[in-house]
Amino acid sequence: MLLFGCIAADTIPYSRAKPPKTVTDISSCLAWLQKPMGAYRITDGDVVYYRVTGPAGRYLASGPSAYTFDSHGKFIGWTADVGDYSTPGLHISPDAKHEKILLEELQKVTP
Questions:
Q1: Helix, strand, or coil here: 100?
Q2: pTM, whole model, 2 decimals?
Q3: d(CA 73, CA 51)
Q4: Per-residue confidence at 75, pLDDT binned at 50, 70, 90?
């Protein structure tokens, strides 16, 4: 019963963190999210990704939710808890460089 209650309780933050289908690029994500927590550039060899973080999609999350974009700003996918879960379909090597960037820099990336 307790497990069911924990799972049910997570549906509220998950539904708030799950991006709508209108999120297709960085600008639409920022417009939907309104108050992102952070912006990052991830360099994995010759490949560059951008990530926006927002409120956690779980009650006992070890990290924020994360929305990932390709080098042109196109939406790739998201995770409700970047501390525990990776973005489905995205494999970033442990050697990848993660840099915090300003939102202004992120907004210049266009699809």
A1: strand
A2: 0.87
A3: 10
A4: very high
12 vs 97: CA distance, rounded Å: 33
Pairing of strands 38-44, 97-101: antiparallel
- Contact between residue 49 and residue 69 where contact means Cβ atoms under 8 Å apart: yes
Q: What is the DSSP string of 28-83?
A: HHHHHHSS-SEEEEEEETTEEEEEEEES-SSTT-SS-EEEEE-TTSBEEEEES-TT
Distance CA 23, CA 2 (A): 34
Cβ–Cβ < 8 Å for 52, 36: yes
Give yes or no for residue 41 having a pLDDT over 90: yes
